[in-house]
Amino acid sequence: MINLFMKKLFYKFVPFPIRMEIEQFILRYETKSSKRYIERQEAYFKYHIDEFRFNDERKADILRIFSFLKKNGATTFPDMADSIRKKYFTRKLEIKKDLTSGLFYVLIDNNKKLFYKRDNNEKSVYRAFNSVSLEQDYASPHRYLTNDQYFVGVTTPETNQVGRREDSFGVTNGGIVIDAGAAEGNFALSVIEKASKIYIIESDAGWCEALKHTFSPYREKIIIIQKHLSDVSDKDNITLNDLIEKYQINKIDLLKMDIEGFEKQALQGGTTKNKAFFADINKLAICTYHNPEDEFEISKFATQYGYKSHLTQGYIFFPDANPTPIRKAVLRAYRENKGH
């Protein structure tokens, strides 16, 4: 009775933001993939369900996914069939070690080489390549491009997912691309044939070394910038404004961002000098799952700057994300003349 009384007082008098911090602190003690942790997250969501900015359909989706996770265990992409996951982690890959650099790489389409950082071995490359390929599968909510667009490492779909109805979203032939948060460079390698120039922004020195080897056959198309894309420019960071001024870029066909929760700051770095700046960027593919308000604020940003936009289908389970770990993964924004 005392515990119940104290709980009622807690919910009545402690403001929501403080309650959220206290409850999430408790949740952190649970194993992120355990059934108990998922149950506690579900209970938290149910109790606060009217305080989230979700419509009824979204709330029902989240509760459905919680039920699935409790029954089947934690998985990053709860809407994807197990058969799709198995397809990636049972396939054979041609993984080799470059004798000159000492770096491992995956041979793709018989001629493209995707290199990995120096601290990798054959086993870790196999796991990493299949994980990022799964992220971009035709059924994945993390897919940057629509299903009519080629992406390296993605296996043949089990159903007619390529033909599902959605407007085409990809790089226009001859377009200029900015790839922020490139890591191994699978996105840039996927669009290298179409793009006239790709500006790769990656802060990790190990990835930058690997990227130089991956894109050595495309030197005339690639510029690798070892910095963070941000809202300030200094020795470790660069803004969109300063990037475009430094390299005298006119029109950008597609800006892709997957930068671990700093997407909003990076977008802000394109607004500080010129309000018309984003008129020269045709399309955006921006990750929205790192922070709780990202999907709303980045969607609002896209509308404010004249884009039409949509969030990708399905959800991602991101255990470290609070207050709810079930989120939309990517926003695609475009102008009417976006092309293919």
What does it look like?
The protein is of the alpha/beta class and 340 residues long. The chain has eleven helices and 14 strands. The protein has helices at residues 2-13, 16-27, 35-47, 56-72, 82-89, 122-135, 186-191, 205-214, 240-247, 263-268, 294-304; strands spanning 95-97, 104-108, 112-115, 176-180, 197-201, 222-225, 228-229, 237-238, 252-257, 281-287, 308-311, 316-317, 326-327, 330-334. The strands form four sheets. A seven-stranded mixed β-sheet has the order 6-5-4-9-10-14-11, with helices on both faces. Strands 1-2-3 form a three-stranded antiparallel β-sheet. Strands 7-8 form a two-stranded parallel ribbon. Helix 8 links the parallel strand 5 and strand 6. Helix 3 (35-47) runs antiparallel to helix 4. The longest helix has 17 residues, at 56-72. It is globular, with a radius of gyration of 21 Å. 36% of the residues are buried. The model has no long low-confidence stretch (mean pLDDT 88).
**End-to-end gap:** 63 Å
Mean pLDDT: 88
Question: Structural class from helices and strands?
Answer: alpha/beta
Unreliable parts: none
Shape: globular
Query: Percent range for helical residues?
Result: 25-40%
Count of discrete alpha- or pi-helical segments spanning 4 or more residues: 11
Order of helices and strands: HHHHHEEEHEHEHEEEHEHEHEEEE
Instruction: List how many beta strands DSSP finds.
Output: 14
Strand fraction band? 15-25%
Radius of gyration: 21 Å
Major β-sheet strand ordering: 6-5-4-9-10-14-11
What summary fits the major beta sheet? 7 strands, mixed
